[in-house]
Amino acid sequence: MKTAVVTGAAGFLGSNLTDRLLGEGYRVIGLDNLITGNRVNIEHLRNEPRFEFREQDVTEHIAIAGDVNFVFHFASPASPIDYLELPIQTLKVGSLGTHNTLGLAKAKGAGFFLASTSECYGDPLVHPQTEDYWGNVNPIGPRGVDDEAKRFAEAMTMAYHRFHKVNTRIVRIFNTYGPRMRLKDGRVVPAFVGQALRGEPITLFGDGSQTRSFCFVSDLIDGIYRLSQTEYHEPVNIGNPNEMTIRQFAEAIIEMTGAKSPLIEQPLPTDDPKQRKPDITRARTLLGWEPKVDLKTGLKQTIEFFKGRIAEGPDAR
Ligand code: NAD
Ligand code: UDP
Fold it and tell me: Is the pTM higher than 0.90?
């Protein structure tokens, strides 16, 4: 049986990836320090003999006995509010955490997979974003901690590939949503759905004319799994190219929840990208992948999930 190590396994994407890997027959060792993750996301695996959870900060040395076939490095705070609250932790997990997980992959002769991000493109001047665009990043702004940590992580990954011949892959993930996101993580999907379900005003940052392109989690995980099965080492964008303004997105949430929430404008955060849409030609060609779940279908499942979380009461995460 093949063994995969997944960092960030108690998070939104790490837990969904873990489910997929178990479904593909892997044994999974999940590492997470629970800084933004939640044990609830892996609770359903409590009696799964092929899954083991270890509470571990991956910026510290990682010791794992026995064979490891694949290391998936998904640990990192992932929302703009988390970057403000956890700037040093974000930089450390992208740099030291990537170094440690690459070191583990090298020592075990394992494959390595880095969860990188569309943040590498910063506030992009090329639209849609292709993988060969080098980006427009402010290194010293509040979002710079994620952008630069992930750019460093990509550089470190390519160096381990070129110098140590580690079999690496890099995915650049664009805005992804779905069940197991944290209700209060500040990202736009939980923020708007939570506000709509509670009948509170929907907080548009700026005038809501900035664009994003939202990918449902099952589509993303499928692209990631397919990429892990290739021998392709350069970054690959995975995301849904269905671009819309944040105002249009708020209107879609209001329509789908039947909420009476008004839209209110609040200051636009520093360096908030004005537009974002993946060019997925590389993923289409290389992986035969494209997103299948439309926004309505994905939001329906996501709204049901958040209804359940809100019903848990005011302390629900
Ligand atoms: P998340 O916050 O739900 O999950 C991240 C997990 O990493 C959490 O469980 C957290 O506790 C854990 N973690 C953080 N620092 C750690 C450390 N030092 N040691 C061990 N565990 C640590 O976020 P997510 O949305 O699941 O994001 C997962 C990865 O995907 C991140 O690397 C993120 O940058 C990347 N990403 C996500 C998106 C998206 O839209 N969801 C977009 C771009 C990139
Ligand atoms: N946003 C918003 N209201 C909110 C939360 C976010 O208008 O309550 C906007 C944010 O300014 C950004 C977009 O929604 O333009 C997506 O934000 P998110 O935090 O999800 O991630 P980002 O794509 O910026 O990394």
Answer: yes
